[in-house]
Amino acid sequence: MSHILTTKMTRRAVLGAGLFVGSSLLLKGCQNASSVSSTQELIVTTYGGSWEEGHRRELASSFTQTHNANVRVISEPGLEAVAKVLAARQQPPYDVILIPEGPMFTAQAEGVLQEFPPDASQNHANILPQYHNQALAPMVASQVLGIAYNPERISNPPRSLLDLWSSEYRDRVGIPSLESGLGTTFFVELARLEGGSENDVEGAFAKLTQLRPNLAAVAPNPGSLATLLQQGEIDIAPHWFDYVSGIRGRGAVVEWVAPTEELASSSSSLQVVRNSQATKLATAYVDTALSLEVQNAMAQPPYNFLPTHQDATIPVELAQLLSENARDRVDARIFIPDWQAINPNRSAWIERFDREVKI
């Protein structure tokens, strides 16, 4: 479903989203009818894992302390959240949705996101310029791409994404499918390493063909890729720093290294949904996510996201891995893919990837 949404919605996705929206609106209506409190409720989405944990403990908690409102946090992949909003434009099931760059530009083009007013935000001006979005709210956090590996089975850690092609990793490499944001980010970075760009990916396809002797698995998403690594099905794979740091903190035998080349990244934003019945409150929720307090909290374990606030510190562990001071920014090393160039081509890339990249 994910690659279809970058250009159009499938009938199954629309029907599935419609069924969800119908039931959720009925439930919402019943709650409003039975409520005897003047306290407003925001319904917001986040991703699972560290995102959900952080948004519940740090963001929603901070917001409810300063606003007369309840926050209902729902774990929902960004693509599915957009699908459900598209299926109920006039009565959206959510007030705020968390979405990565690709689906964000799709939703903006579909007209289902509310413009974000900088003059109503206390924190908008403090977000680094590269994380601003024209007319929309800025990005709230970024993830950086590196190399995850099993230290019990790999004694000589890799230093470059191109090390995945080394003969010592025969039948030991896992990569993510292009249907995931992780996979597309890795693919575009590979194109750049081969002299291309978002608009020239032939080098990336050629390089992936050469990976076949080493390729042991293609995983549909970051969670599946991490599971394969933990189960010993693969020993090395491109992966997000925050994700690997999180599972290692829960006991997984896995390490992460920053590649010697640039750090490719993927950012996500919280966006107010058009036709929300609580636009002002929803805007305040997004602004809270942009605050220095919340950004610093989300940069600490167990979350370890790269903050977008200019005064926030980067995750301490990431700073150590990069041999940087945690108070210094690492923006010179960060590469942000151009998703407006990626979106029109992504479906075709995925279809070709599925044909050509075989185990």
From TrEMBL:
This protein's record includes keyword Plastid: no
Pfam families attached to this UniProt entry: SBP_bac_6 (PF13343)
Keyword line: Signal
GO terms (BP aspect): thiamine transport
GO MF term list: thiamine binding; thiamine pyrophosphate binding
Annotated Gene Ontology cellular component terms: outer membrane-bounded periplasmic space
PANTHER family: ABC TRANSPORTER SUBSTRATE-BINDING PROTEIN (PTHR30006:SF2), THIAMINE-BINDING PERIPLASMIC PROTEIN-RELATED (PTHR30006)
Protein's name in the database: ABC transporter substrate-binding protein
